[in-house]
Amino acid sequence: MSPTLPYKISALVFLENRAGELLLMLRAKQPNLGVWSPIGGKLETAIGESPLECAVRETHEEAGLAVSPQDMHLFAMIAEKAYQGETHWLMFLFRCKKPLYHLPPDIAEGRFGFFSREAIRSLAIPETDAAALWPIYDLYRDRFVSLRADCSKRPITITTDQITPAPGP
Q1: What is the pLDDT of residues 54-69, one digit of tens each?
Q2: What angle do CA 146, 148, 150 make, to 5 degrees?
């Protein structure tokens, strides 16, 4: 049985530059302090913000890129149980179809870098990102998948709930 923990909802945004490198932030705050991860943040649930609205807002706030909902593609939903033993998370992963042309300036949450997908494999990233997030990105960024990650035990177990079929010819 899972421990009683707070449940948080977030949106993560995968942004690329024109060279196809991905924007990551070296986090200066928890969660994920001191490791590289995609931009994003918690939904403003008090105002009824949707995951898509959160992704659009966070893209502007963190990367300085103004985007519309049509620029975003929801490619995954992940329910993380007992992340770091502190919180359950429901995460919505979006791929931004609009490229970012310049590296954003540092912000209070951290500093930025562009990395090739191969270079990300050697960065300090959260364990769950290595186990689930990046493999999901690699396989489903143009489709949709729903997953569960049980972080309460080692190794982390990942269960696929649903996958949309690949687009036809």
Answers
A1: 999 999 999 999 999 9
A2: 165
Contact of 3 with 81, CB cutoff 8 Å = no
Cis peptide before 31 (omega within 30 of 0): yes
Q: What is the residue extent of each domain of the chain? A: 7-163
Q: Which two tokens stand for residue 82?
A: 């007992």
Percent of the chain with pLDDT over 90: 67
- Number of CB atoms found within 10 A of residue 84's CB: 14
First to last CA, the chain: 44
Q: For residue 126, what are its two tokens?
A: 């959260």
pTM to 2 decimal places:
0.89
Q: What is the CATH number of domain 7-163?
A: 3.90.79.10
